[in-house]
Amino acid sequence: MISFRYHIVSIVSVFLALAVGVALGGGPLKGTVDNTLVAQVHSDRQVKRDLKAEVAALRTDNRFNDDFAGTVAPRLLRGALRGHVVTLVVLPTADPGQVASLRHLVGVAGGTVGGTMRVGKKLVDVSGKQLVDELGNQLESRTAGLDIPADAAPYDRMGALMARAIGTDSKGGAAVDNAATSILAGLSTTNLMSAEGRLDRRGDLVLFVDGPREGNASAQQSTSAIVTSLAQAVDAGTAGVVLAGPVDSAKKGGAVKAVRDDVGAAKDVSTVDTLGRTAGQVVAVMALAGQAAGRAGQYGAIDAANGAMPGASASTS
Hints:
Elements: H1 4-26, H2 30-77, E1 85-90, H3 96-108, E2 112-119, H4 129-141, H5 154-166, H6 178-189, E3 193-196, E4 205-209, H7 217-236, E5 240-244, H8 255-261, H9 263-268, E6 270-272, H10 278-292, E7 298-299
Parallel strand pairs: 1-2, 1-4, 4-5, 5-6, 6-7
Antiparallel strand pairs: 2-3
Helix pairs in contact: 2-10, 3-10, 4-5, 5-6, 5-7, 7-8
C-alpha cells in the first residue's frame, strides 16, 4: 500500500523540478538563450534581404535582356521568312503569351501565320492511343494522295495526316482544300486538334510550341515520345519543323530533350529551349528560317548541340 508520505514526496519533487527549471531559465541560461534567438532572427532577416536583392537584380537583368532582344529583333529577323507561311501547333501546356509573341515575330521576319492549331490533351496522352489509331485509319482511308506505310505506328500516321491538313512542302503555303478540311473536321470532332479562329492557309513551315512538363515521370516520357513522333512526321510532309519550349522542356521528360535524344528526329527537327525569354522567341523564328534553308539545329541553354542560336558555336564547357 502506497503511503501518504510517498505522495507528499512525489509532489514536492515535481514542484522542485519546476522551480529549478524556472530558476535556470530566468537566471544563468536566460541570457544565452535570448542572445541565440536574437542572433538567429537577425541572421534570417539578413538572408531574406539578400534574397530579395538578388531576385530584384535578376528581374532587372531579365528586363534588360528582353528589351535588348526586342530591340535588335527587327534587324536580326528582317526578311528571314519573306514568302513563307507558318502554321503554329500549340501543345497543351504552352504559354499563351509566348504564342502571341511568336506570331508577332513571324510577321517581323516578313512571314505570315497561316493559322494556329490547338492540340488537345488526348492527342499527346498515351491513354488516347486507341482513338488516335482508329481515327488515323479512318482519315487515311478517305484521303487521296497520302503515302503512309501500311505498318506505320499510330502517331506516325497521325503526324502525316496533320502535315497534309495544316502544311505543305511548297514555299508560300497552300490552300486549305477539301482533303485538309476533312482531316481537320475529324480531329476537331474528337477533340484531338482544332483551329484557333480559322486556318487561312497551310504553312510550308510548322512551329510546335511547347510548355513545361506535366504529370509524373512516366506520363512525361510518353507525351514527349508522342510529340517527337508527330513533329518528325509533320516535318516529312512540310518544308520544315521547329519545336520550341521553355528551359524545362529540355530537361528529363521534356519534349525538346526527347527530340534531341532521338538521332533521327534531331537530324530533321530543330529545337529551341529558351522560349520563356524574348531572345529565345527570336531564336525560334531564326530556327524556322534555317529550316526553310534546309538546316536543322538544336539551340538554347541546355545541352544545345548547335549553341545559343543559328550561327553560334556550342559551348564546350
